[in-house]
């Protein structure tokens, strides 16, 4: 791909035409908070935490879905961007019931980590406190809707990597829920292979291994990369 040149945080850097801004930014060692993004999956641009300011645009743009173009002038840090990111995290925390002290993923939760990095130590908005259920019907795994941030990593890994599309989203806005096979109990899914990929890519304690207690649910961040590497090797050998 042709090489392009752009300016990020007052530094002239190079990238490849067709790459996203997030890819170029990460390749040059610049850190941006993300929750819906995961290497190896398609981009959704849902969490909006990777927003950046691009000269010529009045509104911040999500770096994960914005193509890098020749001559772009980009800022990844500013008072406005940090304020927006803190607001977004606070809204996520207020939308569901994130009781960290009793969560299986406490200490290993990406939402918790991002909140700490952004200095979110309180929530300024009214908690919705929805009455949400748990699906513990599966033999090995559980789903806690209270901790779901609707990043759709589980949906995308199930569709794009495992190829069965067990998971989907039902409803709109604050009524959105992750569902299995047209809203069946997980155990009744006719498509789920029980591979556990959805559990491993979940950034919070929404999807977890049954039997895990507080702080025990540690996800494997290398799982998806190893799956993709194994697939590429198999295709090459075949």
From TrEMBL:
SMART domains membership: NADH-G_4Fe-4S_3
The entry's keywords: 4Fe-4S, Iron, Iron-sulfur, Metal-binding
Source superkingdom: Bacteria
Pfam families the UniProt entry points to: Fer2_4, Fer4_Nqo3, NADH-G_4Fe-4S_3
Residue intervals of the 4Fe-4S His(Cys)3-ligated-type domain: 80-119
Domain 2Fe-2S ferredoxin-type span(s) in chain numbering: 2-80
Domain 4Fe-4S ferredoxin-type: 139-169, 183-212
InterPro entries membership: 2Fe-2S_ferredoxin-like_sf, 2Fe-2S_ferredoxin-type, 4Fe4S_Fe-S-bd, 4Fe4S_Fe_S_CS, NAD-red_Hydgase_HoxS_gsu, NADH_UbQ_OxRdtase_ferredoxin, NADH_UbQ_OxRdtase_Gsu_4Fe4S-bd, PSI_iron-sulfur_center
Protein name: Bidirectional hydrogenase complex protein HoxU
Organism: Geobacter anodireducens
């Amino acid at each position: 791909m042709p090489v392009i040149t752009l300016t990020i945080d007052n530094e002239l850097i190079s990238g490849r035409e067709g790459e996203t801004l997030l890819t170029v930014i990460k390749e040059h060692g610049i850190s941006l908070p993300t929750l819906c993004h995961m290497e190896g999956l398609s981009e959704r641009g849902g969490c909006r935490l990777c927003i950046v300011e691009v000269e010529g645009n009045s509104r911040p743009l999500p770096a994960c879905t914005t193509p890098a173009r020749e001559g772009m002038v980009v800022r990844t840090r500013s008072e406005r961007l940090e304020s927006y990111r803190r607001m977004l995290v606070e809204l996520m925390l207020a939308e569901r019931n994130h009781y960290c002290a009793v969560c299986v993923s406490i200490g290993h939760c990406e939402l918790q980590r991002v909140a700490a990095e952004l200095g979110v130590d309180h929530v300024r908005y009214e908690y919705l406190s929805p009455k949400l259920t748990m699906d513990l019907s599966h033999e090995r795994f559980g789903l806690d809707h209270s901790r779901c941030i609707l990043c759709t990593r589980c949906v995308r890994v199930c569709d794009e990597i495992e190829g069965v599309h067990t998971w989907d989203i039902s409803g709109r806005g604050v009524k959105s829920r992750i569902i299995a096979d047209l809203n069946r109990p997980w155990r009744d899914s006719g498509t789920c292979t029980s591979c556990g990929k959805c559990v491993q890519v979940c950034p919070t304690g929404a999807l977890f291994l049954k039997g895990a207690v507080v702080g025990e649910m540690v996800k494997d961040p290398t799982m998806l990369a190893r799956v993709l590497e194994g697939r590429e090797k198999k295709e090459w050998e075949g």
